[in-house]
Specification:
With 280 residues, the protein is of the alpha+beta class. Helix content is 39%, strand content 21%. Strands 2-1-11-10-9 form a five-stranded antiparallel β-sheet, with helices on both faces. It has a two-stranded antiparallel ribbon with strand order 3-4. The chain has a two-stranded antiparallel sheet with strand order 5-6.
């Protein structure tokens, strides 16, 4: 089934409040070592929940909202110039980067790949600075968007999820799943987060770049649609993931997990949800 149809059923479930369905029992579900976990499908059926309403830092999952806001503020072909501040910000904080250099100019579309695939804090800084305009204004837009989407247990303090200030804010697994369901309704967002790699060829405006997706789940199982990895010491290893299973969009969240385990667990949870959908 095409992703548009899956998203349509997701939005319908959100509209009618179908998420009241009973979660899977612990005996049915695979073992989950993450401190926080949640899996829900586009019919509103909850397939796993564990501390899903706890307010915790979510590391680079913050960048999902950054992309969501940018896609509503910008045109894909808009040009953004990278500054020395963008590069210094990422280097100073020891963050993952897209290896941008001061003076390079990129389309918004390309910078969104740099934001979401290698999880570039330099790309996040450049986009937030441009579309606030200024980072404080952009962060306000992120929080306004969160309120408008009903993410009442989410607060952002930066555009990248780095620890300063205040651990990048906080969210819950439930809020992150809802945000992913809504963000995936944007075809460009869905295309970006579902890509294994993105090549930007050298031009007069920038060097050549090849950005590879940090989401290993894309190469490990079929019908995976993205969405985002994250890590800080406080948040642990995080994974927001989505896939198609038996005609439904399944979205899951693992917070404060181990690096490799989050991918194997996500794979098992997707299959578990698929079995539950198939067999009722």
């Amino acid at each position: 089934m095409r992703i548009a149809a899956l998203i349509s059923s997701t939005l319908l479930a959100l509209a009618i409040g179908a998420s009241s369905a009973a979660p899977a029992t612990a005996a049915d579900a695979p073992a989950v070592g993450a401190r926080v976990a949640y899996v829900v499908d586009s019919a509103g059926t909850i397939h796993y929940d564990k501390r899903e309403t706890a307010r915790v830092p979510v590391a680079s999952l913050v960048k999902v909202m950054t992309a969501y806001v940018v896609l509503r503020e910008a045109e894909p072909g808009d040009i953004v110039r990278v500054t020395a501040e963008d590069v210094r910000y990422a280097a100073k904080n020891g963050a993952a980067t897209a290896s941008l250099r001061a003076g390079e100019r990129f389309t918004v579309r390309d910078l969104l790949y740099g934001l979401m695939l290698p999880s570039g804090a330099d790309a996040a800084n450049a986009l937030a600075r441009t579309y606030g305009p200024g980072k404080p204004a952009f962060i306000r837009k992120m929080n306004v968007a969160a309120r408008s989407l009903g993410l009442d247990d989410t607060r952002y303090t930066n555009a990248d999820g780095m620890p300063t200030p205040s651990q990048g804010g906080y969210s819950t697994a439930v809020d992150q799943a809802r945000l992913a369901q809504l963000a995936l309704s944007d075809p460009m967002f869905a295309e970006i987060v579902g890509s294994r790699a993105h090549v930007v060829r050298k031009t007069a405006a920038h060097r050549a770049h090849t950005w590879r997706n940090t989401n290993k789940l894309l190469t490990r199982t079929d019908d995976v649609l993205g969405v985002k990895t994250g890590y800080t010491r406080a948040a642990g290893h995080c994974l927001l993931f989505a896939g198609e299973r038996n005609g439904r969009l399944v979205v899951g969240v693992l917070l404060n997990d181990q690096d490799e385990r989050r991918f194997s667990t996500a794979e098992k949870l997707l299959d578990h949800a698929g079995d539950q959908i198939a067999f009722g």
